[in-house]
């Protein structure tokens, strides 16, 4: 995959998923559709369904049909190119990996999906960007040092769009945007137990609080 942004003066890749990406992982598979519905209705406009979530294919097909015009629906925990093919056939618009695998990036590009590979160090972040990432998933963000780490890394790498993920809570999500992130990814701090017990009222409150905290 060709690089379209290696310096601050080059053409930027553009992240299109909004300031918050909700990561749906695990559970029983029974509540996927309800969780997606509550998140989108609460203003979260990017939904990532991971491949290790039961019924993720059915949930994605439903989400794309119901909310494909209102939200970006993508696949997460992509470990093989074939999973990109499967998600693309269901209507996904982006693919997220915990690591950087150029073969996955190439397949995402071929299928027209935005690619969000995981990276931790400055070297990994630049490598992912130069392989054509739409934005780089800085992971695990909190354990790497949080917003302070991100701010330091982006000082020389301000041409890279990043989506920090991992250990980010509702109350500190905005700090990552202030540090230079184009979006943040939240899993359990946002979704909670909703995928297991279907507690949608608590989910709605958390989602609304996150949207209000990000302010855009």
Automatic annotation (TrEMBL):
Keyword Lyase: yes
Pathway: Carbohydrate acid metabolism
Low complexity composition-biased segments: 1-10
GO molecular function per UniProt: (4S)-4-hydroxy-2-oxoglutarate aldolase activity; 2-dehydro-3-deoxy-phosphogluconate aldolase activity
InterPro entries: Aldlse_KDPG_KHG, Aldolase_TIM
Region (Disordered), start-end ranges: 1-20
Keywords: Carbohydrate metabolism, Lyase
EC number in record: 4.1.2.14, 4.1.3.42
UniProt family annotation: Belongs to the KHG/KDPG aldolase family.
Record text on subunit structure and interactions: Homotrimer.
Name of protein: 2-dehydro-3-deoxyphosphogluconate aldolase/(4S)-4-hydroxy-2-oxoglutarate aldolase
Natural source organism: Curtobacterium luteum
């Amino acid at each position: 995959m060709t690089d379209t942004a290696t310096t601050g003066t080059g053409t930027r890749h553009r992240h299109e998923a909004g300031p918050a990406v909700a990561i749906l992982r695990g559970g029983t598979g029974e509540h996927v559709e309800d969780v997606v519905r509550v998140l989108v209705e609460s203003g979260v406009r990017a939904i990532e369904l991971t491949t290790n979530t039961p019924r993720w294919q059915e949930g994605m097909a439903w989400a794309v049909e119901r909310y494909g015009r209102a939200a970006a629906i993508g696949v997460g925990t992509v470990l093989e190119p074939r999973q990109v093919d499967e998600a693309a056939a269901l209507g996904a618009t982006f693919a997220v990996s915990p690591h950087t695998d150029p073969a996955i990036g190439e397949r995402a590009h071929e299928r027209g999906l935005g690619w969000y590979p995981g990276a931790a160090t400055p070297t990994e972040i630049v490598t992912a960007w130069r392989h054509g990432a739409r934005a780089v998933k800085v992971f695990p963000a909190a354990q790497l040092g949080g917003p302070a780490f991100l701010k330091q890394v982006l000082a020389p790498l301000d041409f890279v769009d990043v989506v920090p993920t991992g250990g980010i809570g509702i109350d500190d999500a905005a700090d990552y945007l202030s540090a230079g992130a184009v979006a943040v990814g939240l899993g359990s701090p946002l979704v909670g137990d909703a995928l297991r017990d279907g507690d949608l009222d608590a989910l709605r409150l958390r989602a609304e609080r996150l949207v209000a905290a990000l302010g855009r």
